Amino acid sequence: MLALSFGPGSTALLHLLSQHLKGQFAKTGRTGYKLHVLHVRMSGDDEGTESLERVKTRYPDHEYCTASLAEALDCDGIRSILPEIPQSEDHDNLMTILRRLGSTTAQADVMQLLLCRLVAATASRTGCEGILWGNSTTRLAERTLANAANGRGASLPFVTADGMSLYKVPFFNPMRDLLSKEIASFISIVEPSLDELVVQHEQKPMTSTKYTTIDDLMRQYFEHVEQNYPSIVANVVRTSDKLQAPSLTDVETQCELCCTPLGANSPEKSRLCHACIVALSVPDP
């Protein structure tokens, strides 16, 4: 399964895999694998509809499906650990639930975790053997430091490593050796160009730290660093790769939200790690 966000990384990966499959079929008359493409709508019922149709037209040989991030509420145990909302409000509205969290950083953190849970659950349900992400070295470096800053350091070996993930489905990052700026260059030089398939989200300048997330800070930091010091970006990922990931067969309990192994220092009788307890805390009125 390929997780397609319409960003440069996942779009470039879809193009490369499509070309690879065409080459296989031309040589042998068959392909070694099939590609199932999933797009998750982060908000809005019609988000990404036109973009997906353009992708289908250009790469018609794959199976496509879409899902709403709100469907993550149906994953095992998710509803029971998210904050309760008043009876008068829509209990199926994920944004209503997320707005009750204490900060924009917590909202972005939980959304990313729910995205991984939903993609992994969809891959398992459809019989996919693994999940392909379009993460560049730059994006992996951003996620590494963001996870550490959010108190989820125990998950770092799983963030950058290819192979079995915390969600019991293998994760792979085929674009991991490329910087974001290199992928952006590739997008523009492919013939025909992939620019029309890429959805560029406008990055608003930071005007208040109150509404700036850790993810935003990491993104802006590495956007600057990769221009002048690309080796620093790669070193962050290489350092994370050196961390030894525990075997999940030896893990007795995992956090019910982020699936990080719960060690001896986790809160007693808690189903969540400390980082997720903090993220899901609701401020007093």
UniProtKB/TrEMBL annotation:
Lineage of the organism: Eukaryota, Fungi, Dikarya, Ascomycota, Pezizomycotina
Listed Pfam families: CTU2
GO BP: any one term: tRNA wobble position uridine thiolation
InterPro entries in the record: CTU2, Rossmann-like_a/b/a_fold
Organism per entry: Piedraia hortae CBS 480.64
Keywords: Cytoplasm, tRNA processing
PANTHER family assigned: CYTOPLASMIC TRNA 2-THIOLATION PROTEIN 2
SUPFAM superfamilies in UniProt: Adenine nucleotide alpha hydrolases-like
Name this polypeptide is given: Cytoplasmic tRNA 2-thiolation protein 2
UniProt key word Cytoplasm: yes
GO molecular-function terms, A-Z: sulfurtransferase activity; tRNA binding
tRNA processing found in the keyword field: yes
GO cellular component: cytosol
